């Protein structure tokens, strides 16, 4: 009986052992790397990121474009009004102000009336013009009559010639007085003339009031041109010979000007030469303000332009992420200069390649983690 129980117990033990072995064999093995592999693991030098993950990372692409020009240097400069940019408008003849048409701070166009002034001199010129016109009429009629008599042989030709000379003198007198009145905007009948703006700009001084006297030695108005300015800077010695008149300069955010003069003498103290450029009027362009300008020259062959946000640093070197099959590749580049939110790259990227301009920080974190 005991032998029978022994056999039954042995069979039960074997069954339990077999069951345990089967349970351990069918149980999944857990390891420290049991989590699913990320779709951003590098494969053959590529950061494998699918479209769904790229959208989650905020990745946005733009094509690299061939660079036509490149920034050579950024130099400090001072904004100045150009020569002949400030004009004093003087009263041509003494008189009394009848009416003022603009005030200080007004913008004016060239030829725009500024004030009307009554002047005895203009009245006198108007009277002289009337008398000169009358003399011209008489002289021309007399010259025509004597010329006819001379052609018929009734009088000597010298008398006709003398009459023609007197008529020509009368016409010249009329022309001179008419020209004087036209130059000052005068009206002989009313004895008044009009001050006009010789240039377009802004009235920066208006020392004139209705009823006040003016004379020919004062300037009731001062006008500053506001459509153009000059920037004067110091060109570093290393760029002398590379920078020439006619090249472009940029004044941020979006003003473009032209270099008009480059000095050839080097200042021993600053090791630089003078540079002068013309720029148009724009926001923030004020005479006397310190600024900086970007000197622009032709870009080297093969250079491309990309947004500033496309370039990042890994291990202290500039890189750009470009699209590749299965994800994105890290491309080492040779950085150039930049301006207006774009960077010129001298090597590493070809025109037309799609570069990452948004989401670069996320790709950088994946690249540096490997």
Description:
The protein has three domains: 42-68 and 301-369, conserved putative lor/sdh protein from methanococcus maripaludis s2 fold (Beta Barrel), CATH 2.40.420.20; 72-84 and 226-298, Elongation Factor Tu (Ef-tu), domain 3 (Beta Barrel), CATH 2.40.30; 88-224, Beta Barrel (OB fold (Dihydrolipoamide Acetyltransferase, E2P)). Helix content is 27%, strand content 37%. It has a six-stranded antiparallel β-barrel. It has a five-stranded antiparallel beta sheet with strand order 1-2-23-22-21, covered by helices on one side. The chain has a five-stranded antiparallel beta sheet with strand order 10-11-9-7-13. Helix 3 runs antiparallel to helix 4. It is an alpha+beta fold and 370 residues long.
Summarize the structure.
By secondary structure, the protein is α+β, with helices and mostly antiparallel strands. It has helices spanning 2-26, 51-56, 120-151, 157-184, 360-369; strands at residues 42-43, 46-48, 60-63, 65-66, 69-80, 86-89, 95-100, 107-108, 113-118, 186-187, 192-196, 201-206, 213-214, 221-224, 228-236, 248-251, 255-262, 272-280, 290-298, 304-307, 311-314, 317-324, 327-332, 334-339, 342-347, 354-358. Helices cover 27% and strands 37% of the residues.
CATH superfamily of the largest domain: RNA polymerase II/Efflux pump adaptor protein, barrel-sandwich hybrid domain
CATH class of the largest domain: Mainly Beta
Query: What is the rounded distance between the termini?
Result: 70 Å
The best one-word shape is: elongated
Q: State the helical fraction.
A: 25-40%
What's the total helix number? 5
Tally the beta strands: 26
Count of the domains: 3
Domain CzcB-like C-terminal circularly permuted SH3-like: 304-364
Protein name: Cobalt-zinc-cadmium efflux system membrane fusion protein
Transmembrane segments: 7-25
GO molecular function: transition metal ion binding; transmembrane transporter activity
């Amino acid at each position: 009986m005991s032998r029978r129980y022994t056999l039954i117990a042995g069979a039960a033990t074997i069954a339990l052992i077999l069951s345990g072995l089967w349970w351990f064999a069918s149980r999944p093995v857990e390891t420290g790397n049991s989590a699913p592999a990320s779709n951003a693991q590098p494969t053959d030098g590529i950061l494998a990121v699918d479209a769904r993950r790229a959208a989650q990372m905020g990745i946005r692409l733009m094509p690299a474009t061939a660079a036509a020009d490149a920034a050579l240097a950024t130099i400090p400069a001072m904004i100045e009004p150009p020569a002949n940019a400030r004009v004093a408008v003087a009263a041509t003849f003494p008189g009394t102000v009848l009416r003022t048409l603009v005030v200080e701070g007004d913008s004016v166009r060239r030829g725009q009336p500024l004030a009307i002034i009554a002047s005895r001199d203009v009245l006198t010129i108007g009277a002289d013009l009337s008398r000169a016109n009358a003399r011209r009429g008489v002289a021309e009629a007399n010259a025509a009559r004597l010329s006819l008599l001379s052609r018929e042989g009734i009088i000597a030709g010298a008398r006709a010639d003398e009459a023609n000379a007197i008529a020509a003198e009368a016409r010249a007198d009329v022309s001179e007085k008419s020209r004087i009145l036209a130059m000052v905007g005068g009206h002989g009948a009313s004895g008044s003339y009009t001050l006009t703006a010789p240039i377009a700009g802004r009235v920066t001084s208006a020392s004139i009031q209705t009823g006040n006297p003016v004379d020919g030695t004062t300037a009731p108005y001062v006008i500053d041109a506001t459509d153009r300015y000059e920037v004067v800077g110091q060109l570093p010695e290393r760029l002398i010979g590379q920078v020439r008149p006619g090249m472009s300069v940029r004044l941020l955010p979006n003003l473009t000007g032209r270099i008009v003069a480059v000095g050839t003498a080097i200042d021993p103290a600053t090791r630089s030469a003078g540079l002068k450029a013309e720029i148009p009027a724009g926001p923030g362009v004020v005479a006397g303000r310190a600024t900086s300008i970007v000197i622009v020259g032709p870009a080297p062959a093969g250079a491309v332009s990309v947004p500033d946000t496309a370039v990042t640093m890994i291990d202290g070197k500039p890189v750009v992420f470009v699209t590749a099959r299965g994800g994105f590749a890290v491309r080492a580049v040779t950085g150039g200069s930049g301006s207006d939110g774009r960077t010129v790259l001298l090597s590493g990227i070809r025109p037309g390649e799609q570069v990452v301009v948004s989401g670069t920080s996320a790709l950088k974190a994946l690249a540096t983690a490997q």
